[in-house]
Design a protein that fits this description.
It is a single chain. The chain is α+β, with helices and mostly antiparallel strands. The chain has two domains: 12-207, Orthogonal Bundle (Helix Hairpins), CATH 1.10.287; 226-349, endopeptidase domain like (from Nostoc punctiforme) (endopeptidase fold (from Nostoc punctiforme)). It has nine helices and six strands, in the order αααααααααββββββ. The protein has helices at residues 5-18, 47-117, 124-129, 134-201, 204-212, 216-222, 237-247, 266-275, 285-290; strands at 294-296, 306-309, 315-321, 324-327, 336-339, 344-349. Strands 1-6-2-3-4-5 form a six-stranded antiparallel β-sheet. α7 crosses α8. Residues 31-50, 79-98, 204-235 are annotated as: Disordered.
Length: 352
Amino acid sequence: MQSHPVKRVVSGAMAAVAVITVVTLAQPAASAAPSPAPQTPPGNSSDALAKYRELSSQAEKMNQELLKAQDDLKAKQGELDKATTDTDAAKDAGAKAAENEKKFRTEVDKFAGASFTSGVQLNKLSSLLAGGTTQEFLERSSALDVISADKNVALGNLSGAVKQAAESTAKAADAQKRAQDARDAAAKLASDIEAKKKSLDSQVAELKTQSNQLSASDKAAQQDRGGSRPDVKAPGAAAQAAVNAALSKLGSPYVYGATGPGTFDCSGLMQWAYKQAGISLPRTADAQIASGGTRVSRDQLQPGDLVGFYSPITHIGMYIGDGKMVHAPDTGDVVKISPLQSQYAGATRPSS
């Protein structure tokens, strides 16, 4: 199958986004969804760290939006591929139906010629009037019955072929429309991703400048793991494996778009940890909370539950008990243990 031009656009846009390691963005418009509130810095931290974390938190929100756009792009490419396959199949079926229609029409034309063009109406009455013995009449009548049956079969075949040809034409038209819709949507998504990336790139210098203004104590606060690794008892084998995996990455750097095993973004850490437990999670924080598993209330949280924050959900962590979670906060930070953040949005208990 020939590749479509949009595939090259899609691949280029996705590859460009995949290499992002440090991003930020301009101040969001007033109509946009609330940006993630930054982590509360330690009491002895500076205003520079507070500002840095604010910028980083907003960048994490954009990171999740980019990841969702990438997922949407893959889905649209899948729709395009299926629609293209359906179009080819419908065209093949239509061509075969056209051949059958031509074949069966020829057979019907033969019967029509035998019955009418010769001026002789072949039926049982004409056979009787032709004379002969009773046995001869029965034999001729039987032969005419066979001819009549064959004619009906030929007419039925022709009718079926005509119907199949019409259905194939309709299916091909529908598939072509679906392909065009998917192609247009994929092209728009690719363009949106590229635009978002350019916007993020234009803000990288500001984030780097803020990083340069951090003091040694601020940088130490960024590397704080939230205490030593606790002994967490999860309610099930899968949850225990996921908790153990997430806690094993305490101190690992946060990197936008990273899914491990050495660096992570927030949803990348959750996806990687549950993969170690044999459970597949979607890529984005919002999708991880929304799809699969069992939604649980805050007062029913158990170790291993995924906890999401903000609306729409743009940050996620794993509950480990005692009001705490393990998570990958934002750029410049590391995987750590923290209290549950404000703007709690909900929780999901993944299931195998």
